[in-house]
Amino acid sequence: MAFVTDKSGFVPAVAPRSRDKAAPARRKSRRLHLGTFGYGLPLLIIFFVFWEIAPRLGWLSPLFFPPLSEVLTAWYAMLLDGTLSANIGISLQRAFIGFALALVVAIPLGFLMGRYSTFEKVSDLLVQTLRNTSQFALLPVFILLLGIGEASKIAITFYSSIFFLLINTIAGVKSVDPLLLKAARSMGTSDLDLFRKVILPASIPHIVAGARLAVKSSIFAVIGAEMLAAKSGLGYLIQNSQLMMETADMYAGILTMTFIGLIVNYLLVWFERWATGWKSPSESSPH
Amino acid sequence: MDRITVTDVHKTFQLKPGQFVTIDGQPSDSVTVLDGVDLTIRKGEFITLVGPSGSGKSVLLDIIGGLTQATRGTVEIDGKVITKPDPKTGYVFQQYALFPWRTALANIEYALEVRGATKRERTDKARYFLSLFGLSGFEDRFPNQLSGGMQQRVAIARALAADPEVLLMDEPFAALDAQTREILQSELLRIWEKINTTVVFVTHSIDEAIYLADRIVVMTARPGRVKEIIDIDLPRPRDGDIRSSTEFNGHRGRVWEALRDEVNKAQKDWALSPAYAA
Lengths: 287, 278
Description:
heterodimer; A: 2 domains; 10 helices; elongated; B: four-stranded antiparallel beta sheet; globular
């Protein structure tokens, strides 16, 4: 599974699997996926080996590029003294709260904008304007309004994730098969049930695809915000280590970020597969 | 006893601003699809509706189902004027319209869920209707794990699970292959004879119309009216062999006779208004 790059265009992200893929094809693609991993591994190992020996042989300044083993030692020390877990905890908390708030706002708003064209016509221009304003450009505003504390960090993660969710929810609502709506109405479905039982489940693949982008965006934003204005968190750790010229700690922080990114991405891929299991012809039931 | 009364139903579709069609050489910004349909359907009757493309068969079905409003005229079911989907009515579509995120069982349960049935009642009933269509063992399959014929069986089971007094079917077997089609026709008759609900069934196939119906309603070319109603007095229960009988052949001739001029008219109509087809 390739990592989805953050899309900044207007095109909403769509769940990557098509519904008519046959089961044998999926098994084959999973084997292929492991194969790709195997092919890619040597280059990654060469990269790490280079990182280890280049500073030792004087090709790179050990002051700016400490060998990988020193970075890992620094990482282990921070793990033992609790620095790492405390900073990971605070960063993820900020990212998650912002994302969760965005979810709560974006889904109902996306439903309204996707379903009622008047509502969309009225609000679309404002949404497009806000969504094309950099969250980092707004950080000073958030700090002015909300202070230097947690609220301004949560605001920036909220801002970074809401538009991915909103745009995808709108696209999801609009893509619901009109025939399903007609069928639901023919069975006497109320308006509320139409949202809950038809439009929401039909939009889930779009919403989950948006959530993947939103979570990544939220994590990236919290790192940036912590570098600019914070006294805790992984971003602060990275930035502060650089200022103190503790470069091994700095790289340890960066590597930690990378691994968190990888883990979160795989969790989301797994969640996406679980939530949209009905789209694949596998035997297993997702519920 | 009359179950459905259609009185002077008209339906005109207004086109979007700036759009025009050419009707009888004149530009127009609206299309009249139904032009005074009168029809009375008795309780427990099996009616098939045939007519050329554009004769408004599906629109008439939507109006009876309360999914579309007539521009003029009324539809009554058991004396009640229909303005919105009635809980007494079940609807089956050509493209199945199953919810792809629900299993076969959960799809049938949906019809009972929105009517507020208890979980136990829903499951029991959904299982019963699956077994009625020979789909026991497929409860947990999602629609895209089922063949077209099986999906349509689930869709019919879903419509029947709510005990409808009227079952509206819009070319339900048109997307299926010929063999599956004949099998499902027989299955539908077998189940209909058991539950005796009133059925209004739209089809393009004359054979299908004759095989299923008590009466065939032949519609005119657009704008649609009832051209002729043909009684099909073939004995029931009917089996597939009846299609090769002399009586069946006689009906085939009569239906085609009624339909031929309308089909020709419809073809000229479409040829004259390319703007509408585009």
